[in-house]
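One record is set out below.
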Amino acid sequence: MVAVSAKDFESLLAMRRQLGSQTAKMRTLRDALLGMTEFLDDLAEALDDDPSPEAHDGPPSPDTVQSHAELVAEIRRRAHRVRTITGTGRATNAPHPADPRAT
């Protein structure tokens, strides 16, 4: 047992309430990040699966193809980075390509 003054006890209670509030905010932030990573994964897959050459008037230029591939790689890199921060894996067992620009 520990004896503390009433003032110190009130201070400890206030810190406990603040910590509880911060924990709730962190959970909300984590949920938002998880939703964002799932969206980025789905977006990357859609871009990867749909090169859509027929959607353009002519064949895609090499710059467009390179930009498309770079965009997909960047989306995957950012989703992976957020996932490492949140400590979660992907909901599905989809393979993740190796990132040549690992952080």
User: Anything to note?
Assistant: Residues 6-86 form one domain. Residues 10 and 16 are 10 Å apart (CA to CA). Residues 6-49 form the longest helix (44 residues). Confidence is low (pLDDT under 50) at residues 93-103.
